[in-house]
Design brief:
Layout: H1 12-35, H2 48-88, H3 96-113, H4 115-130, H5 132-142, H6 145-164, H7 178-202, H8 204-216, H9 220-236, H10 241-273, H11 275-280, H12 282-304, H13 321-345, H14 350-360, H15 362-374, H16 380-406, H17 408-431
Helix pairs in contact: 1-2, 1-3, 1-4, 2-3, 3-4, 6-7, 7-8, 7-9, 7-13, 8-9, 8-10, 9-10, 9-16, 10-12, 10-15, 10-17, 12-17, 13-14, 14-15, 14-16, 15-16, 16-17
């Protein structure tokens, strides 16, 4: 398609928009470069006019000759940029302007094919160029070497391992999806990193509760694991006992708030799959959410009232890849077990499947129960009890994860919140039966 000019849009309006976007991209990027161009004989070779002309050159080449002519235009602009670099490399060894000039030519050609993408990439490039000082200061003065390594590791797993992992069911009972498991590893590391960044920006007292609530919409169990890992790292550092206690309280608030996200997301899943069941569970779920929020607020208040400040600078790694891999391995084993029971027992083992499925994912357990109810294989009350069984086993899994990741003090504080939430859910569900 790139090599065939006839394949481009013949709509005059679309063509005009493409040329306008190409001009706009060139002017936008060129305006940023013009401010850094300097004056006199040592000024940079490319400014607002050069970038605008380069972008229009790419657009004209793409419109008139397709991809072949665009490639020639890019080569010519690249050769001119190389000559300019040879003249100025003693004064400025950087290649940013020259590379941006070549990319702007390509964006001009892209604007003829897809104006929206060209505009978005052009705006992103302009922002990236304008943020030079902030980026340099952040990488050199804010990020530690360990944080940079962690960021590169997360990027490698996200951009390399995740796309390469096959997205199909394999293994015993076809229970294992490699793509899903790698995605879970990414989520665990990302939630850890989210808590780490929030702690550095807002302090542990505010950052961890906010990160816990946000992470709960991804995976509450993984969030509780991440909070426990943060506590373990603090214990291995040189934090004082009072500072560690304040950190435990803030992490507990984040862990409990992640369960709030679990209930909210479960209600959304049920509403999409089985609205009668969702309406039946609305009041118990709402009461459980309120109880969890109140319990979390108690620990937020205790953390805010601590006399000892919790350090917010880097005290370790943003995440522990070994812990993330171990957690995912446990989840994979549970997936195989649940699949085996479903294969052997079928719809007769809904309660047992919901119980075991809750150890892996409360939302998946609720979705499976709703699916069985949609097939008229289960009544409303029976479906309610099955979902509550799944929520209960999920809470038990969270307690086990808290004990393993953060130790007894962490688990002891999370436990009552989970028990209160479950008691409210079961009591109101029983009253509405």
């Amino acid at each position: 398609m790139l090599n065939n000019p006839a394949s481009l849009s013949s709509d005059p309006t679309a063509v005009l928009i493409g040329f306008c976007v190409a001009l706009g991209v060139g002017l936008l990027i060129g305006a940023e470069r013009e401010r850094r161009k300097g004056h006199g004989p040592n000024r940079a070779p490319a400014g607002i006019r050069t970038f605008a002309v380069a972008s229009l050159t790419g657009a004209v080449a793409m419109y008139a000759g397709g991809g072949a002519l665009l490639a020639v235009a890019v080569l010519v602009v690249g050769a001119l940029a190389l000559l300019a670099y040879q003249r100025r490399r003693a004064l400025d060894p950087g290649l940013t302007t020259e590379v941006a000039l070549v990319l702007t030519t390509l964006l001009g050609g892209l604007a003829i094919r897809d104006a929206a993408i060209a505009a978005g990439v052009g705006a992103a490039l302009a922002v990236l160029l304008a943020a030079r000082e902030h980026l340099h200061r952040f990488v050199r003065g804010v990020l530690t070497e360990q944080e940079l390594h962690d960021a590169l590791l997360l990027a490698a797993v996200l951009l390399i391992a995740l796309p390469l992992a096959p997205d199909r069911d394999i293994g015993p009972f076809n229970a294992i999806n490699p793509h899903t498991l790698v995605l879970l590893i990414v989520l665990v590391m990302s939630i850890n990193a989210l808590g780490y960044v929030a702690t550095r920006l807002l302090g542990a007292r505010f950052g961890l509760p906010i990160a816990g609530l946000a992470g709960g919409f991804v995976s509450s169990t993984a969030t509780i694991h991440a909070m426990g890992t943060r506590i373990r790292q603090a214990r291995q550092g040189d934090e004082s006992a009072d500072s560690q206690l304040a950190l435990i309280r803030a992490a507990t608030a984040g862990a409990v708030l992640s369960s709030v996200a679990t209930l909210v997301q479960m209600m959304l899943v049920l509403w999409m799959l089985q609205r009668e069941l969702a309406m039946h569970l609305a009041w118990p779920m709402l009461a459980g959410i309120v109880a969890s929020v109140v319990y979390a607020a108690f620990f937020v208040r205790r953390a805010l009232g601590s006399r000892t400040a919790v350090r917010t600078e880097a005290t370790g790694r943003a995440f522990d890849p070994v812990a993330a891999l171990g957690f995912t391995t446990i989840v994979a084993a549970l997936l195989v077990l649940v699949a085996a029971l479903n294969h052997w027992l079928g719809s007769q083992g809904v309660l047992l499947s919901a119980f075991l499925g809750g150890f892996v994912d409360a939302h998946a357990a609720a979705a499976s129960v709703a699916s069985v109810m949609n097939r008229a294989d289960m009544g409303l009350n029976a479906a309610t009890w099955a979902i509550l069984v799944g929520v209960t086993s999920n809470a038990l899994m969270k307690l086990i994860v808290a004990l393993q990741s953060g130790g007894p003090k962490y688990a002891w504080r999370i436990g009552p919140g989970l028990v209160i939430m479950l008691a409210v859910l079961w009591l109101l569900a029983a009253l509405s039966a």
